């Protein structure tokens, strides 16, 4: 059963900041949903193959061509921080 | 000017006979939007009337706000994308524009299409035009409500677990969930990549087939889109259904409200009277489909919604609504090391069993017929209190998504003045047959003639 501590950990892994109120309600709801889907354990699936892609389509390849991309200003328009035609992010190695 | 509920067919006929022009048609629909949408609340964004470029024989369309529209705000019904202005169009948007459909606006939906009543929209709740205290269904709530209220003749929508068929059946409209891969998903904000299906809602079956003729087909920008040839969905639509074998999955009739069951029996009699043979079939794994779906869906959502990092577009992740947070966390859990085999892999195996059920049924019949929803239309506030209750609303719609099959929801009457719908389910890429069946049923019943009461002034 999923504990409150585990919910906190999953939230951190998902990069979802949770308030105390949310943490409390999700700690009740998530275990309920998980036991709801565990209904599947009634079925024996030992010799059943999983289906990942329903239409049976295999890799769709295209020619490796360079095509015109979107204008830089259109791309940057939605980014919160940009500089010199780059999108700015927090540092990766020294990120706080 | 024309009567209420101008359909695409009526508009095209009117252009043909020069009874009215594009400008008059757009004026008509914009006046309706201005006059009625304050009550219905189906639009998130209305394209200003003076910005709409109407030339020649144009037809208005509105897009579920999960369809990317160049230079028009696209929110997916979520706060996190408020103010996002896409730099490109979804393929479906381009295709419809090329066929003279002009965008009148963007329609409300459950945030990221997570929901069955429209109440998970981060902005506001869309009302059912047939009874304003009831839900319009979801997640394509705005699409169904706008078409039902005659604000646009066509609205696009998406169906990942029932999000087209539920709202269509709640609003006396026609909704197609095409075969997985029939319509390009490029530019549609992804939810569950292995079941997302792109369709639309209209007043009539003819209109619906007309639109699929435009949107269906391979798209090099969507690797899952199919190369299968696109037939003309309108040819032979009036051929009738005499001699067809239509199966009724007995598992779909368990747990129906009495009134829904009675209404469904009535529809079965009509289909029989039109010359089809009714055959009982069994889809024994039906009860498990909903469990499979609520493992696969959160899993794929947790991956798809990882792109909302607040860096390239959108706001920070604390802006996700409760349902998105729930699903992202559930998916992160079920995909995490040590749990993958128990949940995701197990679900994909049971999915195979669900698919096998359908395959066996289609050995015996040409198509299936079933209710869309086991109860009558829920009141606002009724389903949203409990996530599992909300998930169970999809119980009769998700099996089709897991198997990638096409399904057409058509109006099948009213229970206490509230619309109810049935779905016809086909083999892969058999939309043409579904339209033939739906058209035949509709020609006999003509439920689309019943407009919402509050509009009868």
Describe the structure.
The complex is a heterodimer of chains A (96) and B (457). Chain A is mainly α and 96 residues long. Chain A has a domain at 1-42: Orthogonal Bundle (Histone, subunit A). Helix content of chain A is 34%, strand content 4%. In chain A, strand 1 and strand 2 form a beta hairpin. Chain A is flat, with a radius of gyration of 22 Å. Chain B is of the alpha+beta class and 457 residues long. Chain B contains 13 helices and 13 strands. Chain B has helices spanning 8-16, 22-40, 91-98, 141-148, 165-170, 205-215, 258-273, 286-304, 322-335, 341-364, 387-392, 398-403, 431-445; strands at residues 43-46, 59-64, 101-107, 127-128, 131-135, 154-158, 174-177, 198-202, 245-249, 277-281, 367-371, 407-415, 418-425. In chain B, strand 9 (245-249), helix 7 (258-273) and strand 10 form a beta-alpha-beta unit. In chain B, helix 6 (205-215) runs antiparallel to helix 13 and helix 8 (286-304) crosses helix 10. The longest helix of chain B is centred in the last third of the chain and has 24 residues, at 341-364. Chains A and B meet through helix 1 and helix 2 of A and helix 8, helix 9, helix 10 and helix 11 of B.
At a glance:
The complex is a heterodimer of chains A (96) and B (457). Chain A has 96 residues and is mostly helical.
Mind sketching the topology for me?
The complex is a heterodimer of chains A (96) and B (457).
Chain A: H1 4-13, H2 20-37, H3 72-76, E1 82-83, E2 86-87
Antiparallel strand pairs in A: 1-2
Chain B: H1 8-16, H2 22-40, E1 43-46, E2 59-64, H3 91-98, E3 101-107, E4 127-128, E5 131-135, H4 141-148, E6 154-158, H5 165-170, E7 174-177, E8 198-202, H6 205-215, E9 245-249, H7 258-273, E10 277-281, H8 286-304, H9 322-335, H10 341-364, E11 367-371, H11 387-392, H12 398-403, E12 407-415, E13 418-425, H13 431-445
Parallel strand pairs in B: 2-3, 9-10, 9-11
Antiparallel strand pairs in B: 1-3, 4-5, 6-8, 7-8, 7-12, 11-13, 12-13
Helix pairs in contact in B: 6-13, 8-9, 8-10
């Amino acid at each position: 059963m999923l504990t409150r501590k585990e919910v906190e950990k999953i939230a951190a892994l998902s990069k979802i900041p949770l308030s105390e109120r949310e943490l409390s309600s999700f700690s009740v709801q998530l275990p309920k949903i998980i036991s709801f889907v565990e209904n599947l354990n009634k079925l024996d699936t030992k010799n059943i193959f999983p289906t990942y892609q329903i239409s049976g389509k295999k890799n769709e390849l295209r020619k490796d061509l360079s095509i015109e991309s979107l204008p830089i200003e259109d791309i940057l328009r939605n980014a919160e921080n940009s500089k010199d035609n780059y999108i700015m992010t927090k540092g990766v190695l020294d990120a706080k | 000017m024309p009567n209420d509920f101008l359909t695409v067919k009526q508009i095209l006929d009117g252009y043909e006979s020069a009874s009215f022009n594009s400008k008059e048609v757009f004026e008509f629909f914009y006046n309706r939007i201005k006059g009625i949408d304050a009550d219905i609340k189906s639009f998130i964004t209305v394209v200003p009337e003076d910005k709409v470029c109407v030339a020649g024989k144009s037809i208005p369309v509105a897009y579920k706000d999960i369809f990317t529209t160049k230079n028009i705000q696209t929110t997916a019904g979520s706060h996190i994308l408020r103010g996002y202005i896409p730099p490109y169009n979804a393929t479906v948007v381009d295709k419809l524009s090329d066929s003279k459909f002009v965008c009148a606006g963007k329609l409300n939906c459950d945030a990221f299409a997570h929901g069955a009543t429209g109440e998970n929209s981060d902005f506001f709740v869309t009302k059912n035009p047939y009874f304003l205290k009831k839900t319009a269904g979801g997640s394509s709530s705005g699409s169904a409500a706008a078409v039902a209220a005659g604000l646009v003749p066509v609205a696009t929508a998406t169906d990942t677990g029932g999000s087209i068929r539920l709202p269509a059946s709640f609003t006396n409209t026609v909704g197609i969930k095409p075969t997985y891969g029939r319509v390009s998903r490029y530019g549609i904000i992804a939810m569950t990549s292995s079941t997302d299906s792109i369709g639309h809602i209209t007043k009539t079956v003819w209109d619906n087939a007309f639109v699929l003729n435009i949107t269906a087909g391979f798209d090099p920008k969507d690797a899952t889109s199919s190369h299968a040839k696109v037939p003309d969905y309108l040819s032979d639509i009036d051929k009738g259904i005499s001699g067809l074998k239509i199966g009724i999955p007995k598992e779909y009739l368990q747990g129906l409200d009495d009134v829904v069951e009675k209404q469904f029996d009535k529809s079965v009699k009509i289909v029989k009277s039109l010359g089809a043979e009714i055959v009982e079939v069994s889809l024994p794994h039906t009860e498990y489909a909903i469990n499979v779906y609520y493992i696969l869906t959160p899993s794929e959502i947790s991956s798809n919604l990882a792109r909302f990092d607040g860096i390239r577009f959108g706001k920070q992740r604390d802006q996700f609504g409760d349902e998105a947070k729930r699903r992202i966390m559930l998916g992160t859990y079920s995909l995490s090391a040590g749990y993958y085999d128990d949940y995701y892999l197990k679900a994909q195996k049971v999915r195979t069993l669900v698919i096998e059920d359908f395959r066996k049924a289609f050995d015996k019949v040409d198509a299936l017929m079933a209710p869309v929803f086991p109860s009558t239309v829920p009141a606002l506030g009724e389903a949203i209190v409990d996530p599992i209750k909300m998930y169970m609303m999809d119980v009769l719609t998700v099996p089709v998504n897991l198997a990638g099959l096409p399904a057409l929801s058509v109006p099948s009457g009213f229970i206490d003045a509230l619309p109810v719908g049935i779905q016809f389910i086909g083999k892969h890429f058999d939309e043409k047959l579904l339209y033939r069946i739906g058209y035949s049923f509709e020609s006999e019943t003509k439920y689309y003639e019943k407009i919402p009461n509050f509009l009868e002034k």
